[in-house]
Write a structure and sequence with these properties.
With about 100 residues, the chain is mainly α. Helix content is about 65%, strand content about 0%.
């Protein structure tokens, strides 16, 4: 009985270590800026408009629903484009300070 209990404890500890252990260095992807997010959102909205148009021509949507969804997507696209334009013409933000103050470079 004690061998089975010891095995369960070892397996539990190993599982907890595997799940919750954080390595010293995390490899994160590139930082996503608001402009990158908006460009991705723009692509998604355009794809949705394209799909909506295709499905309407295939007869899957009545005209009232199609026009309501098309108007909604076009308004969202206009908002995204306006914000992209605003961000592209905004002055550059000040450079970020180092995280480790006093650290030697």
């Amino acid at each position: 009985m004690s061998v089975a209990l010891l095995t369960c404890i070892v397996v539990t500890l190993a599982t907890l270590f595997y799940v919750f252990y954080l390595p010293g260095v995390l490899h994160l992807g590139p930082e996503k800026t608001r402009l990158i997010y908006l460009r991705e959102r723009q692509e998604v909205v355009y794809d949705n408009l394209r799909d909506l148009n295709f499905e309407y021509k295939a007869g899957k949507f009545p005209e009232n629903d199609y026009l309501a969804m098309k108007t909604s997507l076009e308004e969202e696209a206009a908002g995204v484009l306006a914000e992209i334009d605003r961000l592209e013409h905004a002055p550059a933000p000040p450079p970020r300070l180092r995280k480790n103050k006093g650290a030697r470079v």
